[in-house]
Amino acid sequence: MEITYHWEGDYLIPDLKLSDTTEYQIGKYGRMRKRFLEENHRGIYSYMILSETLWKHLAEIDEECNEMMDRLVRQMAKKEGVTEQLKSDDWLCWLQKMNSIRHLTMKSCAKWQNFLRKKNTYANAGISTRFLTVSPAAMISLP
């Protein structure tokens, strides 16, 4: 790759442009992943910035965690018997159960993201990740 320069006064300034100008929406889990990479894996973080893959990676992690949250909330609500009928009969009980379910799924997503962190970190280091295959549902313990 050849870099071109232009003169500004007495200085040569490189003509650098980003190849990917897509804007990604990063939510809670994407920001958590970014902070983790900044604090614990500076080399990987720097590489991803320079290779222009960081924001896409963060958006993918955020989307995966949000989809998992939605799916787990639906599954757990069905298993616990939290229905629209309960909502119309006893809305306070419904609210308590839904808040409990959301709290459990948020903890589960945080655990899952920690798992993804380990798996991605090992993969980037060239270590086999076969032993790290775990389903997200196995990380939740229902009462």
Q: What's the arrangement of secondary structure elements?
A:
Blueprint: E1 5-8, E2 11-14, H1 28-40, H2 42-50, H3 54-80, H4 84-89, H5 91-124
Antiparallel strand pairs: 1-2
Helix pairs in contact: 1-2, 1-3, 3-5
How would you sum up this structure, described in words?
Helix content is 62%, strand content 6%. By secondary structure, the chain is mainly alpha-helical. It has one domain (5-128). The chain has a two-stranded antiparallel ribbon with strand order 1-2. A hairpin with a 2-residue loop joins strand 1 (5-8) and strand 2. The longest helix has 34 residues, at 91-124. The protein is elongated, with a radius of gyration of 22 Å. Residues 125-143 have low confidence and may be disordered.
Number of domains: 1
Given helix and strand content, the structural type is mainly alpha
- Overall geometry comes to elongated
Report mean pLDDT, rounded to a whole number: 80
Percent strand equals 5-15%
Integer-rounded radius of gyration: 22 Å
Quote the distance from N terminus to C terminus.
Answer: 58 Å
Which regions contain 5 or more consecutive residues with pLDDT less than 50? 125-143
Count the beta strands.
Answer: 2
